[in-house]
Write a structure and sequence with these properties.
Helix content is 28%, strand content 28%. By secondary structure, the protein is an alpha+beta fold. It folds into two domains: 188 residues, 3-Layer(bba) Sandwich (FAD/NAD(P)-binding domain), CATH 3.50.50.60; 150 residues, D-Amino Acid Oxidase, Chain A, domain 2, CATH 3.30.9. Strands 4, 5, 6, 12, 13, 14, 15, 16 and 17 form a nine-stranded mixed sheet that branches. Strands 1, 2, 8, 9, 10, 11, 18 and 19 form an eight-stranded mixed sheet that branches. β13 and β14 form a beta hairpin.
Amino acid sequence: MKTADAVIIGAGVNGASVAYNLVRHGLKRVVLLDRYLIASGGTGRSAAVVRQHYSNEELVRMVKRSVEVFHGFADEVGGDAGFVACGWAFLVPDYASDGFSANTAMQRRLGVDTREITREELKTIEPRLELGDVHRIAYEPGSGYADPRATTYSYVRRFLELGGELMQMTPATGLLRSGTRIEGVRTENGDIAAGAVVDAAGPWARAVAEWAGLDVPIKVTREEEVLLETGHVGGPPRLVFSDMAQAIYYRPDGRTRALLGRGFPKDYQVVDPDSYRETADREFIAEASERLFRRIPVYREAVVVNAYTGLYDVTPDWHPILGRVEGMDGFYLCAGFSGHGFKIAPAVGELMAEEIIDGRAHTVDLSRFNLARFARSELFQAAYGANRA
């Protein structure tokens, strides 16, 4: 039987970050396993927005560290994450003002480079905006977006250079279990005995956890995005925008295109990750586009060139499940990221490595992210509703 110090199930950005950080911190035999190819699940179609505006200290600390990694990615990890520090703006309606004040104060206390700016100041950066429905604006000059596939590949490449092993197109089929201890992974290509097994399977994480006898409250939702060609109407947005007032987000996608998606509130369609429609609905394209046109009227002359669907793995409080599982030795969860996973992946990999190697994550306390919080009704709360984080 093949043996390893650790097996990570799922080669999305978080699984790749965990794998890299484990070998970087001294584990010699680490296997990164994927049912298909790297970044082929939720990661590959992530909007890959990198922003730091959260309601909880733990997440702010994670994303602040992750932004530091993205800025110095070539030195911190190696390779290229495709990170573009174009800046990020959060457009807030009047009813969210109290939460906005609390969040920005907490973020500044934790060292995040964030500030409130006026509509006039924002229009000096992006003059095409119509801002009549916007009450307040947060601006993070060092935030932006990245390339999710390039980021994952860079983590995997460094993992391999440091001696890790990648097994693609190798579906896991079960877990090796002795009582309350998980001792390895069953795959279509044979069993792997391991001292630690990490469930980083994204949309398939609940199914993996069921092999350990766990009921993990993750639902998989279908998330649609649109690409518009904007080169002939002044180019893409100058910043990444989270537009709470219009319930959309949009960002540059290279030099001439804009990427557009819908935010809360909206209807969430729960799907089977093995059987869902990957093309975007016509109604979604029309509605999301109209919301964008209200914000940037000149985009009415833009051309939609693509639209597609990705997946979120969503928990009841829209926060991830991280760390060891109480009463289950050798098994770790790294799942349920609820659309926030890409931007915190660099920190998550570091913290999971601490949890596995040192017995406890010490850079940021992961105890609040434990699976047991759901049984104890100790869910995270957020300033703008649960799924705004």
